[in-house]
Q: What sequence folds into this?
């Protein structure tokens, strides 16, 4: 199996290092997942729920504004990640 499940530590310093590494891995996995999700949404032209923008009106100019704002925010989110 990968890794030892019954690890015994000689001192607390070893345990601290192991838990710090575990937290770093979890952050990396979450970051990778967020990047994958945003790229997939961009490729499939979907709008994630956290990006929804509301603009009054239902004409063509309003819809273009919403689409441009959504595209811009999704790209900014990907650059940030």
A:
């Amino acid at each position: 199996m990968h890794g030892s499940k019954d690890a015994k530590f000689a001192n607390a310093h070893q345990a601290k290092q192991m838990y710090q590494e575990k937290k770093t891995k979890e952050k990396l996995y979450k970051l990778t997942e967020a990047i994958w999700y945003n790229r997939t949404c961009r490729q499939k032209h979907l709008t994630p729920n956290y990006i929804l923008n509301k603009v009054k009106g239902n004409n063509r100019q309003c819809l273009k504004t919403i689409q441009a704002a959504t595209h811009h925010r999704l790209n900014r989110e990907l650059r940030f990640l």
